[in-house]
Amino acid sequence: MVVRDTVTVNLTETKITGDGKGAGVYARGGTDMTMRLDGVEVSQVAMGVYVKGGKSLTMKRGSVDFTGSYGVGVYVGNTAMAELTEMKIVGSGKGSTGVYAGGGKVLLEKVTFEAVEIGVTMLGKGTLRMEKETRISLASGGGIGVMVGGDVTAQLSKVTIEGGRKGKGTGVYGMGGTNLTISLDDVKISKVEMGVKMLEGKSLTINGGSIKEVQMGVTMMKGESLTIRENSRIEFMGNYGVMVGKDVKSADLAKVTIEGDGKGTGTGVIMEGSGKMTLDKVGISKVKTGVYADNGALEIKGRTTIDFKGSGWGVYVEKLVKNVSLDDVTIKGEDNGYGIHAVGSEEMVITMKDVTISKVGKGVYVGGGKSLTISGENSTIDFMGEYGVKVEGLVTTHLTKTRIVGKESVGGRNNGVSVGVYAVGGETMTLTGVDISKVQTGVSAEGRELMVTLEGGMRISNVQTGVAMTGSGKLAVEKETEIQFKDGYGVMVGGKMMAKLTETRIKGEGSGYGVYVGKGKVVLENVTVEGDGKGKGTGLYMAQGAVRLKDTTLRDVAKGMTISEGVVHMEGGSVTFSGRYGISVSGGNAFFSGFKITRQENKGTGTVPDADADTGTVTNTVAGVGAGVEVSNLAKVMMKEVNIEGVKTGAYVMGSGFLVMGKGSISFKGEYGIYFDQGYAVLNDVHITGSGHKGTGIKMGDGQLLMVDTTLKEVAEGMTIVKGNVSMVGGSIEFKREHGVLLKQGSVLLNNLSMKYMGNDSDATFLKVEADSVVDKKGERVLNTADIKAIGIKIDGQAKARGVYVTNGGRVMLLWFRCVCFPFYVL
Q: Which of 142, 176, 202 is the last residue of a domain?
């Protein structure tokens, strides 16, 4: 049928059958032409209906079956309006188009397309509406369900588009145009390669519906906005679910489900645009990468969930992204991969609130950028591998109320190395109220200018090392912070670090060190370092550097403090230990004042070994076991108002160590109050007390000692000097057994002091000299010099002890002394 320049054409209940060529209906008219086809069936034609020009075309309850290789079921050119209702259009496969419109207004309702390569094409300027269960079934080789371009506004509602057996082609394709607008409401697309693709346009909106059995879901390359919402569902098997190109200004996904094929490939959402993308209440699963962004600003919120496979990423951010915000988001892996991986520009800002990351190899990685903020009481990072949070070169990092959990302290991957929070470089990192557990190291940091602060009741537990920091930065561990570790370190610093710990509690289990200073400067104020009381562990160990302790408590440890080299100042607090020593200084200088050193028994059932594996400390001997203070290797120790109690040996000095002690006391239970293997000491107003008149107050193997107003009491013997020089001014000596003072080589000067024998043995002696003979350089045996000079001393022998006993050429000189009933012997 051919119509030309006719005003009105009506066809009803008509069948038009061709011979495989030409058009079933061909009409060209003026602006007023109207065509109405009701119940018309067109078949065996190359082109079903061709209308160009006119006012309107209406087709109802009919069908078009065309056979041309590149035929068109219905062609509408320059017609103001076209309406197709309850129509069936059947093509011939490759090259066939169901409906082609060159503009105007086109409405399709309950139209069925079959075996077409392109279901509907509309170009130019106009409006396309497809509604009410319109269905497009593409040819077996695939094709395009709906193709629009130019300044068309396309609105599809309750439309179904299904590809062919080969799964090729595109469901909806926007060719381009600055004002092109596409809206899909409850549209179902399946079995094509690409669900929806817009090369260029103003906006693409998808409300509800589904895109399934596709390689890629939705692509928008250029335009103002992409919107996907209202329970839309995208299931893809290839590269991605949604891709936003670099020239798209904004993208908004809300209440959307995106699902991959579960084979560990593909990306849920790709963002390349420089604008902003928002994901709200989105569910992404069965993908390798949840969200990939390399430009613009990314916001994910509203209970969005991301489940990724294998060694993938929950969120992957590249360097052109300026802002990333996650709020109320859940990311879950398969015991591998990254929760969040971001490598940004210098201006990148990342904000996370109430984010849950679980079953990942690495929680959050940020390389470069301006800041990272993680907050919210529901923020949790549960990881299986190397770290929970790692930042490199980031200006500012702030974590608040975040819970970070590893697999176990030595159970992570990477040969067991796992870190809760790891910082390399940058300027500041603040952890407020953060809870870290089940990792090897809680917090690890290194950098030249990095400032790390732990505050607000932060807790680190079930770790091997609580905090480890090196470099030349600063560390502040502030009040209410608690660190629990096992067989490692509570806080370890090195390099040129400056660290300050305030009102912090460090509790260790097993062996290890509460605070370890490899180098740098450390201040501890009101800090408690506590062991498990089972005879292992050291409160503080310093290899080099400077440490100041104020009102700090070291307790329930085997060894309170070990100083190998450097400067230490401790004021106030206390040291309670159960092992070899309370404090050992084997190099450098130490000043202690106003605290107590106490030895206690173990809480466990085992015994404390006399020997240990420490290096840089004195060789273990009976004298050195259980000492309050050890001084060796030219170290210098000054103590003021320090009280030492319950120890086996009060102080042990060797290796030319130097001990100065003033206004303090030593209460010992073992063999010696002070033992000199080799060293020097000055005691002023010091009171040395034994237990049950056992042990020796002072024993000197080799050294020099000056005492002023010092007392020795409740001891078996007062002083034994094998070799050395001793001067004692003021004070007193009370002894019960063999001697008050025994000298074998050297000299002793006693000035204005009192001596009292408390025993009942007539062989006891106040001043005893047993000079030994030695071989000199010439090979001749000569007697050692052994002289005791006593000036103004008071001796009370209780009518039992001897006053002086001298042998082998020793000498005793007594001047202005007062005695009570003692015999005098010189042999």
A: 202
The answer to the question of residue 807 being in a domain is yes
Helices and strands, counts by H and E, the chain: 0, 81
Dump strand ranges (E) for 572-678: 574-577, 581-585, 589-599, 627-631, 636-653, 657-662, 665-676
Q: What is the CA radius of gyration of the chain?
A: 46
Using CA atoms, how far apart are residues 364 and 386, in angstroms rounded to an integer?
11
Distances (CA, A) of 722 to 150, 670, 700, 767: 108, 19, 6, 14
Which 3-state string (H, E, C) describes 756-804? Answer: EECCCCCCCEEEEEECCEEECCCCCEEECCEEEEEECCEEECCCCCEEE
279 falls within a domain: no
Which domain range does residue 58 map to? 1-202
Q: What is the DSSP string of 689-743?
A: E-SSS-SEEEEESSEEEEEES-EEEEESEEEEESSEEEEEES-EEEE-SSEEEEE
Q: Cβ distance 361 to 340 under 8 Å?
A: no
Neighbours of 550 (CB within 10 A): 16
Number of domains in the chain: 2
User: Which amino acid, residue 603?
Assistant: K
User: What are the CA-CA distances from residue 371 to residues 343, 374, 414, 619, 670 (Å)?
Assistant: 12, 10, 28, 51, 59
CA distance 292 to 114: 37
Q: Residue 402 has what DSSP assignment? A: -
Full DSSP string of 162-173: E--TT--SEEEE
Residue 433 lies in a domain: no
In this prediction, residue 780 carries a pLDDT of: 75
Query: Would you say the pTM of this structure is higher than 0.85?
Result: yes
Tell me if 138 sits within 8 A of 112, measured CB to CB. Answer: no
Two tokens, residue 31: 């602006």
pLDDT tens per residue, range 84-94: 999 999 998 88
Under a CB-based contact definition with an 8 Å cutoff, are residues 146 and 171 in contact? yes
Cα–Cα distance for residue pair 660/704, rounded to 1 Å: 12
- What is the identity of the amino acid at 507? K
Predicted confidence at residue 414, as pLDDT, reads 43
Instruction: List, for the chain, all residue ranges whose pLDDT scores fall below the cut of 50.
Output: 409-415, 605-623, 821-827
Residue 351: inside a domain, yes or no? no
CA 38-42-46 angle, to 5 degrees, is: 140
In this prediction, residue 27 carries a pLDDT of 87
- Bridge partners (DSSP) of residue 340 are 315, 364
- With H, G, I as helix, E, B as strand and everything else as coil, classify residue 809: coil
